[in-house]
Amino acid sequence: MELIQNTPDLSAYLATDEVIDHEHPMVRETAARLAEGVADSYAYARSAYEFVRDGIPHSQDAGDPRVTWRASDVLRLRTGICYAKAHALAALLRAEDIPTALCYQRLTHDEGGGRVVHGLVAVRFNGAWHRQDPRGDKPGVDARFSLAGERLAFVPDPKSNELDYPVLYAEPHPAVLAALTAAPDRPRLWKTLPAAL
Fold this sequence. Notes:
- The radius of gyration is 15 Å and the shape is globular.
- The mean pLDDT is 95.
- 34% of the residues lie in helices and 17% in strands.
- By secondary structure, it is α+β, with helices and mostly antiparallel strands.
């Protein structure tokens, strides 16, 4: 699958905004801590990825009802669903000048009863984009940071009408952000997650 930037301006994938707020002190302090002792930007990217994947529980897995969407809040509260974790990882990577995009998949939801959009990131190294999924492992999920072939949490099954969206977004998709910001808690968010983009 060819990944397509939604803007040709690579600097857009380094930008800060209300969601990917990498100028926030919480993001800056976390990035500085993760950067200590790493050899290069590749090692930093792996460290940031593993920190978000393993150090911030997926709120559904943890039974946490809080909804986070701003990167600094995800880092401060240590909780979030896939989108929120992707926002936090994007902020940590952009804080160290690593171009990072948000990207999405459409997957089966509720034991086959519907579809849901799943969020992940893509990082740019050596002139190419590499998708990474910081969702967090659980039984049946073994995601890894990799620049040599994808090691995502989920591989869409076309027979089940699942798919990878090829677009790389500089900002969260409006449907994703609308669902996150409108939900008072995760149980209600679960009922309003986007089914498609």
